[in-house]
Every structure is written in C-alpha cells, then in structure tokens.
Write a structure and sequence with these properties.
This protein has about 180 residues and is mainly beta. About 15% of the residues lie in helices and about 35% in strands. A hairpin with a 4-residue loop joins strand 19 and strand 20. This is Gamma carbonic anhydrase family protein. Pfam families: Hexapep (PF00132).
C-alpha cells in the first residue's frame, strides 16, 4: 500500500481484514487491529509517539489522528490509544488521548492531549474535550468545552456495538469490491 509510509524506518502494522482507503495516509508507528477500517482522507501520524487502534474500530472520512512528543515535562509523551468497537465520526480530531471500548466520537469532535475516555461513551458532534480530562464510562458528553450531559440509555449502549458491526460489514463490502 503506497499510503502506508515509514517514519524512522517504522511502517504501520495492519492486522487481518483491515480496510485502509487509498486516499488515507498513515505514517510511522501505527497498529490497526482486526476488522477495523480507515476511510477516505484520514491522516494519521505515529511519528513522535505511537498510535494503537483496536479491533472493529472505524475512523471515518477526514479525521486526523496524532500524538504528543516526549519531553522533560512529559517523559512518555501522549500516544493515541483507541480501543475496540469504536466509531470515530467524520472530521474528528484525536490528539494524544486514550479511548476505551465501545465509544462513539461524533462528527467534528476534538479530543485533546492526555484526555482519557472510559468505556461505553457517546461524545456529541462538535464536542471539545480539553487536555487531561477524564470521561466516566456510561455517559453522553457534549459541548465546548464538554460537559457530562446524562447517563446513556440502554438503546444507546446497544447502538455502540451495532455501529461497530455495521462498519465491519461495510468495510467487508469495500474489500470485496476493491480486491
């Protein structure tokens, strides 16, 4: 794949049944788990730290994924760690943060350095999660800056897995049509 580029002689690692659109560009130390998908115009740079994307996770069109450099004030820097069954909406920006499992990141949301998102979370479209914030599992977060809005309903919790499964089916169709 021409869109998988090395940085310091490190290429992205792509596991089984992963779809990476030809217009996406991935640099450096990036790992993408089984059945995940990277859609058109995604830019991901694992250059000054690493990016880890779990299983059945989808990163939708125009999203930007990056990391924080190691420094004297932050010796480990901030890698970008994304769990399993995560749906990242169009044009989201994730920078040096940690996302648990079964999360929906709304379109245009921004999650900043050092933020940590628990499992089973909805982050509304356009929401800004400031640096180093901790988002508790099982809630909807919205706003700029984000606020905890309410607990998720069971139908919303169920949707988190449904969304991930739908994107697995869609990426399978793309792989079949483009192979």
């Amino acid at each position: 794949m021409k869109n998988l580029k090395s940085y310091n002689d490190i290429l992205p690692t792509i596991y089984d049944r992963v779809y990476v659109d030809e217009s996406a560009v991935l640099y450096g130390e990036i790992t993408i788990g089984d059945d995940s998908s990277i859609w058109p115009m995604v830019a991901a740079r694992g250059d000054v730290n690493y990016i880890s994307i779990g299983k059945r996770t989808n990163v939708q069109d125009g999203s930007v994924l990056h990391v924080t450099r190691k420094s004297n004030n932050n010796p480990l820097g901030n890698p970008l760690i994304i769990g399993d069954d995560v749906t990242i909406g169009h044009k989201a920006m994730l920078h040096g943060c940690k996302l648990g499992n079964r999360i929906l990141v709304g379109m245009g949301a921004i999650i900043m350095d050092g933020a940590e998102v628990g499992d089973d979370v909805f982050i509304g479209a356009g929401t800004l999660v400031p640096p180093n914030k901790k988002l508790e599992s099982g809630f909807l977060y919205v706003g700029n800056p984000m606020k905890k809005a309410r607990p998720l309903k069971q139908v919303e919790l169920d949707f988190l897995t449904v969304s991930a499964k739908n994107y697995v089916l869609l990426k399978d169709e793309y792989i079949e049509q483009h192979s």
